[in-house]
Amino acid sequence: MILPIYLYGQPVLKKVAEDITPEYPELKQLIENMFETMYNAEGIGLAAPQIGLAIRLVVIDLDPLSEDYPEYKDFRGVYINAHIVETSEETNSAEEGCLSLPGIHEKVTRPARIRVQYLDENFVEHDEWVEGFLARAMQHEFDHLEGKVFSDRISPLRRQMNKSRLNNLARGNVNCAYKVKRALR
Ligand code: NI
To answer: 36 an active-site residue?
Structure first.
């Protein structure tokens, strides 16, 4: 089932998300719905707050990048109760977009490598260092779990440049090709 994607200005995107247990109701269905919602909107990552739930659940599918990055062929991940516990000093910059901020794309500087702890869809624990595009995708998505969006991480100048777009989003004044929940004025 395709769920509406909550847009910038919706309060849930500013909440710190909470851990869940395997007993979380209809979790398998929810994960499936999140993938379907993400594919429908042509995204490569989606965090639960973006569908209105302040829980620590993220789905990522990097297969659309596999033409440029063959290592991501069929790469699909589910991240539950994810936390970044260490980051490299080395950083890099790349352009990002977000299904909750349609029409905005900006370069974001982030640590090149991160150590993450999470549970997969079978609630198996993982503790690993991640690099490359996956590290960026995870940081973007895990930011959503901390109540942050990527526009919080761009320079004041670039934020100023996007001010009218952000204000329009926050006022619910936006058109979108996929199903959304606009901000309430
Ligand atoms: Ni996002």
So the answer is: no
d(CA 31, CA 17): 16
- Catalytic residue (choose from 71, 95, 131, 141): 141
Q: Are 87 and 93 in contact (CB under 8 A)?
A: no
Q: Which two tokens stand for residue 82?
A: 């994810």
| pTM greater than 0.90 | yes
Tens digit of each residue's pLDDT, the chain (185 residues) = 999 999 999 999 999 999 999 999 999 999 999 999 999 999 999 999 999 999 999 999 999 999 999 999 999 999 999 999 999 999 999 999 999 999 999 999 999 999 999 999 999 999 999 999 999 999 999 999 999 999 999 999 999 999 999 999 999 999 899 999 998 86
Cα 150 to averaged position of ligand 1 atoms, centre (Å)? 7
CA 148 to ligand 1 centroid distance, Å: 9
Superfamily of domain 5-181: Peptide deformylase (3.90.45.10)
Helix (H) or strand (E) holding 84: strand 76-87
Distance between Cα 149 and ligand 1 center (Å): 6
